[in-house]
Amino acid sequence: MKNKVKIIEDKKAFIISITIFIVLSISIKNYYWFYPPPPIYSITSKEAIERLEDSENGFVKIATDENYDWYLSVDFNIMEYYVYHPLMLKGWAYKGMSDTTKGYERFHSKDGVTLKLEVYNWVKGYQFLKIYHGVDF
Questions:
Q1: To the nearest 10°, the Cα dihedral for 87, 92, 93, 97?
Q2: DSSP assignment string, 107-124
Q3: What is the pLDDT of residues 100-110, one digit of tens each?
């Protein structure tokens, strides 16, 4: 009788171990669950990461929301290459920067117009850019 009880307990432990392994495997495969929500509410962190991974250059437009375009970049250098430098080449003079609790704001001006770029730091060095819709860079 003791042998039968021990076999049943071993089977239960084995089934529980396999179940835990499967759940952990699924969670690790779908690692997006531990990313914080992005600063834009019309997209999930999973969608944002997938769009960035599908991009060829580490910089992608992810949404347009309330007259603003939202972009996601893998780091500051990519943002510098695809946004800040082209803006300056098109005549937008850099006027300064201010820190915010979630990132920073950059200011550029051209022909008396001031352009504010809001950059939100996210995870792993990723940065979201919020820029007025229609700005060409």
A1: -60
A2: EEEETTEEEEEEEEE-ST
A3: 999 999 999 99
Cβ 38 vs Cβ 127: under 8 Å: no
Phi/psi region, residue 39 (left: phi>0; alpha: psi -120 to 50; beta: rest), is: alpha
Closest CA to 72 of 96, 53, 86, 94: 53
CA angle 108, 110, 112 (to 5 degrees): 105
Query: Between vectors from CA 133 to CA 75 and to CA 40, what angle results, nearest 5°?
Result: 55
The string of pLDDT tens digits covering residues 20-42 is: 888 777 666 555 567 788 999 88
CA-based nearest residue to 79, from 124, 125, 135: 125
> How far is residue 130's CA from residue 21's CA, in Å, rounded to a whole number?
41
